[in-house]
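Chapter review: from sequence to fold.
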Amino acid sequence: MASTSPDWSLYRSFVAVLREGSLSAAARALGLSQPTLGRHIALLESALGVALFTRSPDGLTPTLAAEALRPEAESLAAAADALFRTASGSLKENAGTVRLTVSEVFAAEVVAPTLARLQADHPRIVVEVAVSNRSDDLLRREADIAVRLVRPSQGALVARRVGAVELGLFAHPSYLARRPAPRSVAELEGHALVGFDRGAPYTRTLQLEGRPLTREQFTFRSDNDLAQLAAIRAGCGIGACHVPLAHRSELVRILPAAFAPTVEMWVAMHEDLRTTARYRTVFAALTAGLKDYLREPASRSRRQLRTR
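The token string follows.
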């Protein structure tokens, strides 16, 4: 094994291949040529004295040595990316790069309008949105700010509870034109239901009369929130949806007395970012935008009353 530590850029290439699964995809992600990326992997393997990948019909498969290096290499890559983001603007100006991590449905339906207003007010802030349902590690700076549906447990984070979003069972009018709306939980049996496949932590809150909903009950299954929402909007069946989103889509609520769980919404960032203007600005904008989102059903109801 070499006595000197390999250049950090080799680890960056290594992490890209781990994430993308092939040299060609990793090269595109990094903006490098495939031969250059191949040389990076060969240099790293030579410096470490181990094989990192084996070729398979599906691409490159990480070896046991590569998997052992993965946590530290990803931490190094995240730290390097965070360093570049921090250096992209001064501490006192609303300028530079901020990286968010949000779920699919929040990115598409909730956060985008907030970011549009933010861009209008602060055009020098550049926002990167990591669309994922997994909790990127803020402590390792995989992201700067996160929108989460569970209370952050790490002590080194600044976390603000925005409120709680209510879930309900909803169906599109086109579905209800084919199938009369159920009047009881018992009548749900036999209806087409939209729901999760493998599930997530928040799916434990999905219960009817004290009994959790299970994947076997669903005729349309997906762990992608946007796919579920699209299926409900398309009339595939009855499914759980944020009440504010359902109001936007003109969906019809089913059995509100039997199903109305709530999920907390939090905005979090590392406490070391509090002194940097752009992070504070984006954090405040997200908090305000999510609060507006939670108020949408009440605002819509008031508008409807005024027009009657």
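Two observations follow directly from the output. The radius of gyration is 23 Å. The CA atoms of residues 14 and 232 lie 41 Å apart.
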